[in-house]
Design goal:
The complex is a heterotetramer, with 2 copies of chain A (about 270 residues) and 2 copies of chain B (about 325 residues). Chain A has 7 helices and 16 strands. With about 270 residues, chain A is an alpha/beta fold. A 10-stranded mixed β-sheet of chain A has the order 4-3-2-1-5-10-13-14-15-16, sandwiched between helices. In chain A, helix 1 packs across helix 2. Chain A is globular, with a radius of gyration of 18 Å. The two termini of chain A are about 15 Å apart. With about 325 residues, chain B is an alpha/beta fold. Classes of the chains: A alpha/beta (about 270), B alpha/beta (about 325). Chains in contact: A-B, A-C, B-C, B-D, C-D.
């Protein structure tokens, strides 16, 4: 593989997100992937720097190596080449048993401690909008050592307080009272880790190891830290920015568009022939 | 012959107003749509759906006003419709009660029921609003009678054996009827699922009555020649019926793909109740399974047909 | 190639003195006997066996003095030896600690561990001496540290959800190593078991390390062509080895039958420690797998060979 | 089938037990069978009056119809013709879920309330003899609606107090105190039934529906009630004897010896040619 970075005209935002997500994976890890862009990202990692990663699909495919990108984790394209095609009880049992290193998730809203909402907008009991619901988001986030969220960056989505905590971040609610405590305090012996990054359409965010508070790590090419801070309803820490998000390489773009998603199911082509 | 064979119409008639139901499949795969359509035609009311996850079957039943309670974690059409517009509308209008658990919790609830255990201990979703006691919808509605609906939504406790951290006890998912859609069932009820089996074995065993709709009813003896490849036991199945393409517009491993265009159209057109009603008039009412297939037509169905070497279709357009 | 391949000798070396162990198989079927023999040759001590049920593997290890704690529900040789004479002798002499659970309890304990749950609720064996608090052997011995060995043998409680009657909480079965013996394993660890899989999937997942000894190591790609027929996932398996007839004298579905004559002889001759020692000198010490097979000889092994249409042998004399 | 009874010279005790056990099964029942004589008895019922019974083997065979008698429930002979070959978790889950009508079990000792011991002789903490252990005996007996025990009749085995209650009868120990209570009281909502018969080498015993106390129902041909009472260490109720245990029919003997167990694995032939 040639590690030759593409120029901004050669890739789109979805390409950038896909490659940034792919780079969160280390070789030999066991990765739990949801439908969509995360699937492409993980299969990209499988074909580049992490050939020995093991892929789990929630619907029951274990150590999958689909020859074509599945459109969802229940897809008939998941089974071919997998170690096992089984069911959800196996997938979640393996996750609760502690096998999963990394999970890729999405969200509609995120707060500054990585709590994510995919359930509703507005009051849960009188919602403005009911969304899809949790799916396996809180489960993967509870069981995996690290989770990475991929999100569209809109100011209303980066909020001091999400409408509903669907997926647990670094400061979570302790029931029955609902007071916020550090995740480690609540999870106790069941603690394995938590959100490690948010990859938005603006930049890559990480969480302080002590406080669990979000900070900006890298800005996507062309974005400035202050600009991204303005795109958050909370006071984003931009003091730790390490630079710019690395763009896709030409090899990665080739793999995404010619090998993994030639049908443009999840990732549109920006330019012909790239 | 075991006498388990019934018709599509009879299958729907077994499901009475007010019954609790669950289904085979996963999101947009292997859903018993033909029976769902028949339930709508028969005007079923007051259903309590308890699903590991939802999908088009949920959206059709909810849109048609068949459902009073939906207990699950997710509904949508994957790539072809990002959320459940009918459920969302009815939730907003308070025409339906929604009880949220996480996906793993729903799965473990069915596993507990299938194993005859009243509950199971998990360590998931700690600290989330899923566990918020104020959001116990069935409790708020005064429906926790300890029969079908457990007395508590959750019990929070500790692990007395290993100090493994806080434990969440989730109640078994007790359902009256499981409605399954699979590739093959034998005359005596033995089921062989190909590909991922999702939560089907647990769903079938958790239910008191299990109805299996299959692409084909095959000789029982054929399935029993390789008994280690079968998925659900003969005596766990009460009724069987053959209904080719019964899962359409959802897909079936090895047989046909998801009809994404159909789902996109359904999602786009059923944001409003008027839209749903029009869609149901076009595709559900006045149809039977044959006229539904006729309306879909050969070119569409052939493009969905799975390649037998790959188990999925190579003829459909999936992307933009 | 995944680099998971090891030798028989290495497999035994992974199992250290004092380790907790479990095995594949059921009573006299699919037991990893070749590794058991190698453990005896290597003089392993202080093992803690946690088994869904015992069999010849238990009796060999116990007879050879390798085992300090046996936690299970049953040991014997079925038709070929009605109880575990070596275990019985050592229990009488107080040379071994026995912790009794029921069969279903042991199975559910492994299922809990495999699912990452610290315990599971059951309704079995109520009112029996299995639940007698005075018979908590590991508790009496002061070994309940809450690590491998749970702080409590049982917790008795109620069902807060449905009032389903008294519940017995049994702790997850935590084991260091699962030693499996199966028909096929792929180069990357994927296992395909044929026939009944007993408690193998749970045993493999409950253990921290899983060693799979197979009749044959097959191309991983061969198993992955039909992924819905596989039993244990690649990444659940840490080490693999090929060892034909590795389950002898126990049987293996589709490959060879139980060697009843061998087990009868073992049972008859090992009632005493002297008898066991003599038997081990004859069949274990000074042997490797090849010389063991040579000693058994072709006529014997061919008579055990399974008919490939039936999956069992038609050539052995089973009755009187 | 001709319902023509065999004469005493034509059958052995094992034949008689096998047929008596077989007659405990009703058609369409789901039956959990252990290794040995119960297996033959159930397969005999399958071939006579209960063609639609469903057979479960503990090791994981569901709705089994083995073409040859298995030597144990783990045997490769279990799978052929079964609805499913799976594992113990399935078998015990199905049992706990409430599917099982009848279980066949054995025992070393039984008391007058049907408590059975298969664990040890003498004090558990200082046993004279350690036996096989419980196996699934208590589980099947807890989960099934009825259980039938098949036992060798020796006076020491029919005892007022078994050394160890392995399998629960009609008056069982309530822990932590260990006082005896009626099974229904202890099991509460989990109550499904209990021991319905003991078939010994002397006669067939049943249990009073109220007290749960054992009584003699039928004497095997040639045995007198008083004689059988003398063979018990407890005071056996012989006031309810209904007659003599029905002998095997010639058809049953034919099935046992020519079809089910021609190899005489579990049931020896008494006479050549029968």
């Amino acid at each position: 593989m040639t590690w030759e970075y593409a120029t901004p005209e050669e890739y789109g935002l979805a390409d950038l997100l896909c490659c940034a997500a792919s780079r969160e994976v280390q070789d030999n890890e066991i990765v739990f992937a949801g439908t969509g862009l995360p699937m492409v990202a993980i299969m990209l990692a499988q074909k580049t720097h992490a050939p020995n990663l093991k892929l789990i699909f929630e619907a029951g495919t274990l150590d999958g190596r689909p020859p074509e990108i599945p459109t969802s984790v229940g897809d008939a394209r998941c089974e071919m080449g997998a170690s096992r095609a089984s069911g959800l009880h196996d997938a979640f049992s393996i996750a609760q048993r502690g096998y999963v290193d990394l999970g890729f998730l999405g969200g509609a809203e995120v707060d500054e401690y990585g709590n994510v909402n995919t359930t509703c907008i507005g009051d849960y009991l009188n919602p403005e909008l009911r969304l899809t619901g949790s799916g396996g988001n809180p489960d993967i986030n509870s069981f995996a050592k690290r989770t990475v969220f991929i999100m569209v960056h809109e100011k209303r989505r980066f909020t001091p307080s999400v409408s509903y905590i669907t997926s647990p971040g670094w400061r979570v609610k302790k029931w029955p009272g609902g007071e916020f405590v550090h995740r480690k305090e609540l999870y106790g012996a069941a603690y394995r880790g938590g959100p490690s990054a948010v990859i938005s359409t603006a930049g890559v965010f990480r969480f302080d190891g002590e406080s669990g508070k979000i900070y900006l790590d890298t800005c996507h090419p062309g974005k400035m830290p202050e600009e991204i801070r303005e795109l958050c309803h909370f006071d984003l820490d931009i003091s730790r920015v390490s630079g710019e998000t690395l763009p896709p390489t030409r090899e990665e773009l080739h793999l995404i568009h010619e090998v993994l998603d030639p049908e443009q199911i999840f990732i549109p082509k920006v330019k012909k022939g790239v | 012959m075991s006498g388990k064979r019934i018709t599509l119409q009879q299958a729907a008639e077994i499901i009475k107003d007010g019954a609790s139901l669950t289904f085979s499949g996963f999101t947009i795969w292997r859903r018993p749509m033909a029976i769902v359509f028949e339930l709508i035609r028969q005007g079923r009311k007051g259903l309590h759906l308890i699903e590991v996850n939802g999908g088009p079957q949920t959206e059709f039943l909810v849109g048609a006003g068949c459902v009073d309670i939906w207990e699950s974690c997710w509904v949508g059409h994957e790539l072809y419709g990002k959320y459940g517009a009918n459920l969302s509308r009815k939730v907003g209008a308070k025409e339906i009660l929604v009880e949220d658990y996480s996906h793993a919790e729903m799965m473990f609830r069915f596993a507990a029921a299938a194993s005859g255990a009243p509950y199971v201990a998990t360590q998931t979703s700690l600290g989330t609003d899923i566990h918020n006691p104020a959001y116990d919808t069935l409790g708020r509605a005064g429906l926790r009678d300890g029969k079908r609906i457990p007395k508590e939504k959750y019990v929070f406790t500790d692990d007395p054996f290993f100090g493994a951290g806080p434990q969440v006890l989730v109640p078994a998912a007790k359902v009256d009827i499981a409605v399954m859609c699979v590739q093959q069932v034998g005359e005596e009820g033995t089921v062989r699922v190909s590909g991922q089996y999702y939560s089907d074995p647990e769903a079938a065993r958790a239910a008191d009555i299990t109805i299996v709709m299959a692409e084909e009813i095959v000789p029982e003896e054929y399935l029993r020649r390789e008994s280690d490849r079968n998925t659900i036991t003969s005596f766990e199945v009460d009724y069987i019926l053959e209904c080719p393409y019964g899962a359409h517009p959802t897909g079936m491993f090895g047989r046909y793909d998801v009809d994404g265009a159909f789902l996109k159209d359904f999602y786009a057109r059923t944001r409003t109740q008027e839209g749903f009603d029009a869609f149901a008039r076009e595709w559900v009412f006045g149809h039977d399974q044959m006229s539904y297939l006729e309306k879909l037509g050969w070119p569409r169905m052939l493009s969905l047909k799975a390649n037998t070497a790959l188990n999925y279709s190579t003829g459909i357009k999936r992307g933009q």
